[in-house]
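The pair is set out directly below:
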Amino acid sequence: MRFDEGADLDTSQVDDQRGRGSGGIGGRVAVGSGGVGIIGLLLYLLLSQLGGGPASPLPNGLPGLGAGQSADNTQISESCQHGRDANTALDCEVVAVVNSLDAYWTDAFAHSGRTYRKPRITFFNGGVNSGCGSASSEAGPFYCPADRESYVDLHFFQELEQRFGAKGGPFARAYVIAHEYGHHVQSLLGTSRRVQAGDSGPTSGSVRLELQADCYAGVWAKNASTTAGSSGRPLITDVTDADVSAALDTASRIGDDYIQSNLGGGRVNESEFTHGTSAQRQKWYLTGYQSGDLTSCNTFDTGDLG
């Protein structure tokens, strides 16, 4: 996957809080650089928060930003101006993906007679406060329906490759962001209200919500290379089979069964499932990608989740 070199990027939806939290590292993360990995992933948080479904409120008391601290978007607005920047710097890459997602969902909502409201996305290091509570980087990327904002520590993507063994790459990273946007869409459509807090199990509403967000991510992925940005041209080009394979590989690394087996105690307990198995996450992402149609993503009214 590549980004149109001359396309304009819009950073107005980004709140850049990197370097402002306790122990924050700050600065931009270059694609392919060593960076600093996330240390000490908490499996409970991964099981309940990876993907950020609103059915699992964030725990309080984790390291976060101090009161009164705010975003400073000066650096990112100066650095992330064109598609060529997205091809060389990770933060700009995410900005470009966000721009593409906003463009796609704006059109999709308009075609169904609805108005799409863009979410915000916060970049942070170490910890962050959100409308759903405070969280450390160990929580992984999450979406908070209370403030309709997604939160991501960009170093998570390195951890995903190093600890989870994912192939990585821009399209795989885009899957993670697109999944969070799927939760925003569910919040706007009221789908999230179908899930009770603490719901778990292989056919639970929580699992159905997560799999639908995977499917929505796949639908966007199918349409990404034809979705025009503010420049009138698609931001994303050259999507290959290898890109799709990398996204599916990432989906397999964040299934409940994979996390429990490989990063937990080695025992799979289906009663604790909140996000679906690796196979299910792959299936529903692929369902969205192959159809390119949002109507294929009705995980709530099917008896066959895969």
Q: What stands out?
A: The first strand starts at residue 2 and ends at 3. The two ends are 28 Å apart (CA to CA). Confidence is low (pLDDT under 50) at residues 21-69.
